[in-house]
Automatic annotation (TrEMBL), chains A, B:
Residues 7-67 form the HTH tetR-type domain. The keyword Nucleus does not apply. Residues 30-49 bind DNA. InterPro entries: Homeodomain-like_sf, HTH-type_Tx_Regulator, HTH_TetR, KstR2_TetR_C, Tet_transcr_reg_TetR-rel_C_sf. The lineage of its organism: Bacteria, Pseudomonadati, Bacteroidota, Cytophagia, Cytophagales. This is TetR family transcriptional regulator.
DNA sequence: CCTACCGATCGGTAGG
DNA sequence: CCTACCGATCGGTAGG
């Protein structure tokens, strides 16, 4: 049973903008494009929002907040570093699959943020990536993981997790939790029998 | 010893454009930006190129050609499917690391291609992805690989290989061949000891 | 949420 | 490779 909540005009604007930013890119999306999708004039958008970039900021920082919020689940895991990595993969994939449009914008369009937002964004990303690196480092020191370059490994793991925004379909057979588990399994155990 | 070859103006334009397209995105890069970097007027660019999109087309299809050319090395491999996958990873990473700017544009800006180039591009990508899927499928049928969804696995593998454009530095300690080997090793055997 | 409009900038052309 | 310029479009504002 689906509950229909009436969306505010502002919410509608942000949703449609997210979709357009994903499809055409932030720079190539005009406020007139956005207005047309909503059936209003471009000038009318400014009754609800301050600027085009404000929309981008909302999308990027809301996604960032969700990644950090999801990490709380990871911190509860007290088992092995493999178990921690699996929890991190699941948490990460869950956030992405909840809104693949916003995720696409988050991953690709952040560079159009102006200062000081750009610097803030990059600092948050560094913080988040550091958490994955810490799991890898601790797992290596512990003897649980192979000796690999932790930055190299972190980037490789995150790239495969991040890529889910590109092919995940809510109508598909794999649930987000299952996708996270399978990706963690690949990362930890590999494709070979 | 480095051999300095005099670059044609057209080559210079394409190189600078590649860098700008990567940094700012295709849509956000103006012909005036590009002209300024070259120290000429925007109108002068059109003595050497037909249009802004022509530059994007050159970048995207040149990269595609290189990925296909590199695949010839993969076809020579007559060993196991693991060996084939390693060869594919090395070939793929070699192409990316040869020009990370062009790779970034190839991965992110292709959607700004107009028809019929866009359709042609997507067909080539599908062909290329199919080759990875075939290795995976054959490896599973052969009993060499775990039973996984081949599309899911192909996308995951390619995402981790593709991501190298983002962090590879020619001055770093890892050579492209070594990066390909390590990524293949992770894909095949995982992080766990 | 609209009409009317702003200055700035866009990709590109004409003609030399 | 330049000057001079085109029509189109941009993000955004004033005033209702």
């Amino acid at each position: 049973m689906e509950i229909l909540v009436k969306k505010s005009r502002k919410q509608q604007i942000e949703e449609k903008a997210t979709k357009l930013f994903r499809e055409k890119g932030y720079a190539a999306t005009s406020m007139r494009d956005l207005a047309q999708v909503l059936g209003i004039e471009a000038a009318s958008l400014y009754s609800h929002i301050k600027s085009k970039e404000e929309i981008l900021q909302k999308i990027c920082f809301r996604m960032a907040d969700q990644f950090f919020a999801a990490w709380k689940e990871v911190e509860k895991e007290q088992g092995s570093f493999s178990a921690k990595m699996e929890k991190a993969a699941i948490a990460h994939v869950k956030v992405i699959t909840k809104d693949t449009d916003a995720s696409a914008v988050f991953f690709h369009e952040w560079r159009h943020l102006s200062e000081p937002h750009l610097s803030e964004f990059l600092m948050m990303r560094e913080d988040y990536e550091g958490r994955f690196k810490t799991i890898i480092r601790n797992g290596i020191e512990n003897g649980e993981f192979e000796k690999v370059d932790e930055k190299f490994m972190m980037l490789t793991i995150l790239s495969s997790l991040n890529w889910t925004y590109n092919w995940y379909k809510p109508t598909g057979s794999l649930r987000p939790e299952e996708i996270g588990k399978q990706l963690a399994n690949l990362i930890l155990n590999g494709l070979k029998k």
